[in-house]
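Look over this today:
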Amino acid sequence: VGGEREGARGRFRPKAGSDWTFLNPDSSTNPDVVAMADQIPFPDGSFQNVKLTEVLEHLETPESALRECGRVLAPGGKLVVSVPFLVPVHGDPHDFRRWTPSGLKQLLERAGFSRVEIRPMGGCVAVVLDLFEYYCHHQVSARGKLRWWVRVIRIFLRRVLPGFLLWLDGRLVARTEITTGYF
């Protein structure tokens, strides 16, 4: 729900020959079904799994969308959700909110879900790197190019240190409080 076939971030990718149905209100994302997340045009219990990643923050009524996802899930089905936390405001076209783990759990339970498990995604290092990338992106947009020293830092972080930074990010104590988001 709300996903894109091409250019999507993350590790959730349809395997060749798998049966995924993409739903999005924006027809430019090439969805199988053009519809809103709170008006899914499928019968009750149509799907074993529903993926709703980085979508809830863009919805005016996220609880309605979650109820609708629950309606189309088959008994025993799973809902996979992710939401950002310490990331810049980003439109799509709007960005309405962020959740803490307790707020997200409450939202899911109010929408009728049980056995809710919430995990942090990236930790402190990921937050800093995301903010640095955001800065670089906006510097390029504003000035047309990055200063030489910012380019050097960016190349070093992306090509020389990524394995070490991921390792470090997974071992910092504040991972649950300083995180890019929740899954």
